[in-house]
Specification:
With 283 residues, the protein is of the alpha/beta class. The chain has a single domain, classed as Alpha/Beta hydrolase fold, catalytic domain (Rossmann fold). It is 39% helix and 20% strand. It has eleven helices and eleven strands. Strands 1-2-4-3-5-6-10-11 form an eight-stranded mixed β-sheet, sandwiched between helices. Helix 3 packs across helix 4 and helix 5 runs antiparallel to helix 8. The longest helix has 15 residues. It is globular. The protein starts with a strand and ends with a helix. 42% of the residues are buried.
Length: 283
């Protein structure tokens, strides 16, 4: 693994590189509240054998500088931010992969910078939240994330692990390291998320201002969606999301992981990686 920081017009970006730079490049974008290794660390042992993998810490997350204005977190502006990074570290077309919020960024990047994208990979994102979930009004989502940020202050790492183990079917020491990496220790000895409430709530607003479905008609790149099958309460939202994708994206592949929750790369790392590799090798 090689770890880098690079300066772009909007601050410093932190990223990790794995594999041979002469192999096809896969750029990875993580989910809201996370960081690059938290989202993709479980996939690296499988992907780095045949691909050059670059994992970013998105703005305001991990060790990447936050953006100063609320509108900076709109997906159209995040796509421009990603393109500044791409211009510094990637030569030629590449594959772009995102999980959750990162999938929405990847989708919008593919919309606005189609010539750079050889293929788009969506990991359980950019097809249900929030617009295909009837209960997910703006007020519901905004209040939920606001409350989540307020209560995400812990007295110990043990408390962090108890909170985050619900996101995985199997818990282990490596996932404890991933979870701990999302937090910083305050002067009074407590642990709080590295990402700020300002950034999180700006991102929640962006989901409603620039819906994923508005990007679909512009996507011409081959697209792979790998999604969770749990919780079952989201099944209708998944069906509707896949229908919308299929209506607009001609070259679309979809796979459901029957034993996975939202963190599919934690619950089924080998199967997720196999699906990605198999799809990439056909391109």
């Amino acid at each position: 693994m090689a770890k880098f920081q690079n300066s772009i017009r909007r601050g410093t970006v932190n990223y990790h590189e794995f594999g041979n730079p002469d192999q096809p490049t896969v750029l990875c974008l993580h989910g809201l509240g996370g960081n690059g290794l938290y989202s993709f660390g479980e996939l690296i042992p499988y992907l780095c054998k045949d691909f050059h993998v670059i994992i970013l810490d998105n703005p305001g997350h991990g060790k990447t500088a936050p953006l100063p204005k609320e509108e900076d977190y709109l997906f159209s502006n995040l796509a421009a931010w990603v393109d500044q990074v791409v211009d510094r570290i990637i030569d030629g077309p590449f594959y772009i992969m995102g999980h959750s919020w990162g999938a929405d960024i990847a989708l919008h990047y593919t919309r606005f910078y189609p010539d750079n994208v050889a293929g788009l990979i969506l990991l359980d994102g950019a097809f249900t939240f929030p617009h295909n979930q009837p209960e997910m009004s703006f007020d519901y989502a905004y209040t939920g994330w606001n409350d989540y940020m307020d209560r995400s202050i812990f007295n110990s790492e043990k408390e962090i692990f108890e909170e985050y183990r619900i996101y995985a079917r199997q818990w282990d020491i490596q996932k404890e390291r991933y979870a701990a990496s999302l937090f910083t220790k305050t002067p009074d000895g407590k642990f709080e998320l590295i990402v700020s409430k300002f950034s999180v709530l700006a991102i929640v607003k962006a989901f409603f201002k620039e819906p994923f479905r508005e990007a679909y008609p512009f996507i011409k790149a081959p697209t792979l969606l790998i999604h969770a099958a749990h919780p079952k309460s989201l099944e209708q939202a998944r069906i509707e999301g896949v229908r919308q994708l299929s209506e607009h994206i001609e070259n679309l592949s979809v796979q459901s992981l029957e034993n996975a929750m939202h963190m599919i790369q934690w619950d089924e790392p080998e199967m997720t990686s196999h699906s990605i590799i198999q799809w990439l090798n056909k391109k």
